[in-house]
């Protein structure tokens, strides 16, 4: 759990990061999940699919639903992709500094198990996590 002031700062940074990524055309326009004014349903009705069908061609739609998606983010890969997106210097250091060194512990009363180090993933409940996840997964749209 983050203290309230940290959450406020995180929310402000999240807005700035999203605006930067949108203004620099870093986010794929077909990305719908975790984007404001979009839903996963909008991904079903894209101009690309309509154009393909209008041309009499066959269209295929691949949807990906990841279980525990935020837990799959590799910190090293995320740092590299943020850098590729134009995030540099102090901003890059700040964005990636709160990822390592986190721990978790399972409590099942009356037991409390040992604390374990979290080696990958972005924090659940953080306002930055959806944007960081989008940046991490952005290269998936370049597979075709």
UniProtKB/TrEMBL annotation:
Stored InterPro entries: DNA/RNA_pol_sf (IPR043502), RT_dom (IPR000477)
PROSITE patterns for the chain: RT_POL
Name of the featured protein: Reverse transcriptase domain-containing protein
Domain annotation Reverse transcriptase: ranges: 1-144
Taxonomic source organism: Pleurodeles waltl (Iberian ribbed newt)
